[in-house]
Specification:
The chain is mostly helical. It is built from 26 helices and 2 strands.
């Protein structure tokens, strides 16, 4: 408190080097947001961007598989409970932090500079994920182009990439065949197309032998990066418009696939398999852990994307409402995707004469093997195949936009004077670097590296980042102060539900997830291939590095302070002097006159000069000022 009082007695001075050109203008009173940083041009931009970010590939290829393997319809019970305990509270916390400060995942740690390493860990994680996630988009582009034909290339055997084990499904369903067929010893045309033509994995013996670059995949990866760059070229002003298509069009395609799926013969076999409740599964902890994992990764908390998107909002945007729209909408989308997927799998199982569990897979196996094979059984197969992969493309691009915007925003907020005027050039340079790093994934053994990145880049390291963030907000910064900030911003204080989840339920659940992931650790596998020991060590180090950045950031922050060790720790854990809302007119109470270059004694006066009166926001500011003054008097 003394540090803040001393600061208020003197005129804040910021070195010219740290000021952006916009900071030097004297027109701040006429702006609703920092013009040089960028902003959403409408409220729907933010909402659709969040929906597009959360509703991604995992809703289509992970949720349905997790649901049927963990109790079918009964899985929805722990799923929605975990959504209430972890998903919604973490989602709202991250949005609140971003909107209140208008800062990215690195600069936002002015709230407690001691923990800036948490932000660095976020950026490392999201950078690794962006590398391999765009490779998945490249695979989708490959199949999208391959669907532009009259006869899908994975429909029949007899191609140069097929082996003697390849067996056409039309032969498998021949009822009067006199030759018995052993299904377990055969391979479908779609599986050989994926592994032997697209990936060409026969050219690699394992992760230590990547083989040559698959130039067709390389071109698809280049195209995917070009698309991403063009969409984020002008920051949220451009990506915020693209999502009007990429966040809504997948729903149209999903509904078309759902209607086509439920009208197929045998569809209800798959749907019954998907939804039949097995309530005895609820007694096992694995089901609850799987539900929490699905919520955690589906909503994308901890990656910094939500925080970044919210940082471009106006100060009083109703993110409380947006939180429930996005989180519940994401859950409903996952359930609908399950109907669309399992209706087709039910038809496929009837056509092949095998149980549903023998054709159901998760992840790339569903998207690039099982579902493409199912498409070949439908009339107008290329049309339905094109729609499916176009849906995957739009789902993936939204998430990739968020990853890239997170990285760009974080770094430009750290160096605003140098990088903000050259944001387009910096974004291009970043895309080129990540493209070059992703070239390893386009090799014949690239799938092994993709699996390694997928298993470890956003594993326990991400959980540590989220747990630390929650503990800093509630224990270090203080729950009371954080709720006061939200009240200042939204006009409502978080109720007992949010406080209970933030203080106890959500971090306890995340700690249980972390312990489970460590105790139940299993080495990575891809099919029958087991990864060598050195690759497992590399993966573990990949997961540990974001965790190690947290103590490294602590050490750096402590060394910057003065005094004894304990004094340095206390000083570094306090909010920075310029922490608070980015605009002077929104700063009340403790945040008065702490903004760099501030000339006004009270943000309230700024509001009165600008609007000619006192609005509901100013009344709230007066109440908060009085509340803080009373607390300070009682402390003295």
């Amino acid at each position: 408190m003394k540090r803040r009082q001393e600061h208020l007695l003197q005129q804040p001075v910021t070195p010219d080097l740290l000021l952006s050109p916009g900071d030097r203008d004297d027109v701040a009173l006429d702006a609703d947001y920092p013009e040089d940083r960028g902003n959403w041009t409408g409220k729907l931009d933010f909402l659709l961007s969040c929906i597009g970010y959360c509703v991604g590939l995992g809703n289509v290829w992970r949720f349905p598989y997790r649901a049927y393997t963990n109790g079918g319809g009964a899985f929805l019970v722990p799923y929605f409970i975990m959504l209430a305990i972890c998903g919604i509270p973490f989602f709202f916390m991250e949005l609140s932090l971003g909107q209140f400060s208008s800062l990215g995942p690195l600069a936002v740690w002015k709230i407690s500079p001691l923990f800036k390493g948490v932000g660095m860990g976020m950026i490392l994680i999201v950078s690794l994920v962006a590398i391999y996630y765009n490779m998945i988009i490249a695979y989708v582009l490959f199949y999208l182009f391959a669907s532009l034909t009259n006869d899908l290339p994975w429909q029949h055997c007899g191609n140069w990439w097929n082996t003697d084990l390849c067996l056409d499904h039309r032969v498998m369903r021949t009822e009067n065949s006199s030759v018995p067929i052993n299904i377990s010893s055969t391979v479908s045309p779609s599986e050989e197309y994926w592994s032997r033509y697209v990936l060409h994995m026969q050219g690699s013996t394992g992760i230590g032998d990547p083989g040559g670059i698959r130039w067709n995949l390389c071109l698809c990866l280049l195209l995917s990066w070009v698309i991403v760059y063009l969409c984020i070229l002008k920051g949220v002003k451009s990506s915020g418009k693209v999502v009007y298509f990429t966040a809504t069009f997948p729903y149209l395609i999903l509904i078309m696939l759902l209607i086509r799926g439920v009208t197929l013969d045998g569809a209800w076999i798959g749907i019954k398999f998907y939804l039949t409740p097995k309530f005895d599964h609820l007694l096992t902890p694995k089901v609850w852990i799987e539900a929490a994992l699905q919520i955690f990764y589906s909503l994308g908390v901890g990656f910094g994307g939500l925080l970044t998107f919210a940082s471009y909002n106006t100060f009083h945007q109703n993110i409380y409402r947006d939180t429930f729209i996005v989180t519940i909408g994401n859950a409903i989308t996952s359930i609908l995707a399950g109907f669309a997927i399992f209706s087709v799998l039910g038809y496929m199982s009837k056509e092949l004469g095998v149980p549903v569990d023998q054709v159901a897979k998760a992840g790339p196996g569903l998207a690039f093997v099982v579902y493409p094979q199912a498409m070949t059984m439908l009339p107008l197969a290329p049309f339905w195949s094109f729609l499916f992969f176009f849906m995957l493309l739009t789902l993936g691009l939204d998430s990739q936009f968020a990853f890239m915007e997170t990285i760009v925003t974080s770094i430009t907020d750290e160096f605003p004077y140098y990088l903000r005027p050259k944001k387009a050039v910096f974004s291009a340079l970043l895309c080129i670097i990540l493209f070059l790093m992703g070239l390893l994934l386009t090799t014949e053994g690239g799938m092994y590296w993709l699996v390694l990145l997928d298993d470890y880049s956003a594993g326990f390291g991400l959980m540590v980042v989220v747990i630390t963030s929650c503990l800093v907000m509630t224990r270090v910064y203080g729950m009371k102060r954080f709720c006061r900030d939200i009240h200042m911003m939204l006009g409502m204080k978080p109720g007992i539900y949010f406080k209970t989840c933030w203080i106890f339920l959500a971090p306890a659940t995340m700690l249980a997830l972390l312990a489970y992931s460590i105790l139940k650790y299993q080495p990575s596998v891809y099919g029958t291939y087991r990864f060598p020991f050195w690759s497992e060590v590399l993966g573990i180090l990949m997961g540990l590095l974001p965790c190690l950045l947290i103590p490294a950031g602590m050490l750096f922050a402590i060394l910057k302070e003065e005094g004894t060790l304990w004094q340095r720790i206390r000083q570094a854990s306090r909010p920075a002097l310029d922490w608070g809302p980015s605009l002077e007119e929104n700063r009340t109470g403790l945040y008065v006159n702490t903004l760099a270059g501030s000339q006004s004694p009270k943000p309230l006066m700024v509001h009165m000069r600008k609007y000619g009166g006192i609005t509901s926001y100013e009344n709230r500011a007066i109440e908060i000022d009085k509340e803080i003054e009373e607390e300070e008097e009682s402390m003295m």
